[in-house]
């Protein structure tokens, strides 16, 4: 049986097109023509011996074989990029100071730091978990090289917008909305200043709904514990949401705005180690 060797460039076009939801966008990002990317996809399907994409409305969707191929493509590309980084960056030394919120500690940090450590064993990463305002202050003061934070009015630092994330009302199965009794809505919030706390209060005030602060916490872990206990509901994005909590779907609760997520840098032209860590963070968030 003839061995098949998948082309990594072809796999990258395939994975990028799926992630962006458009192969035209993938062609633009990769610096190729749309016709070249289409030819690559045909080559990949010929090598696979089966269709990887099917028509879905006006767009395309993955077939079952396409889903399997995408999983392997991501693994192969990750290993390739890690090998390139390791060979080119073997001499990198020093430290990188990264700041982020608790939301991303469990879902982003372990994978990113593991890949970074394998590729750059001589580099030291210092991680600071803090609230959004504290992260921006530390970045502005030069105490951080990178900060994964919510977008605010702070635009003095170089930043890259990652995505807009919806804010949602978060509750537990035991947390019942108290509107039937006419009592104010109990809120579980972080200590002020807090972007999501402000968004929740503003939305309730505009809707004319009564509310009260039922629980205040200095940490996200404390917030989740209070919501799980049924002390009230909170506001957060779906990112990093504990499995036993869920977004509430209620016609009574007002719609909340979206919140921008960005990667901030202390320098417009960061050091190679900082740039590499930033690249890994962006790759991980794209895969989420």
Automatic annotation (TrEMBL):
Residue limits of the HTH lysR-type domain?
6-63
- Taxonomic superkingdom: Bacteria
For this UniProt record, the keywords arranged alphabetically read as follows: DNA-binding, Transcription, Transcription regulation
* Keyword Transcription attached: yes
GO MF annotations in UniProt:
DNA binding; DNA-binding transcription factor activity
Residues in coiled coil? none
Query: Which one Pfam family would you cite for this protein?
Result: HTH_1
**Family membership noted in the UniProt record:** Belongs to the LysR transcriptional regulatory family.
Name the record gives this protein: LysR family transcriptional regulator
Provenance organism: Dyella choica
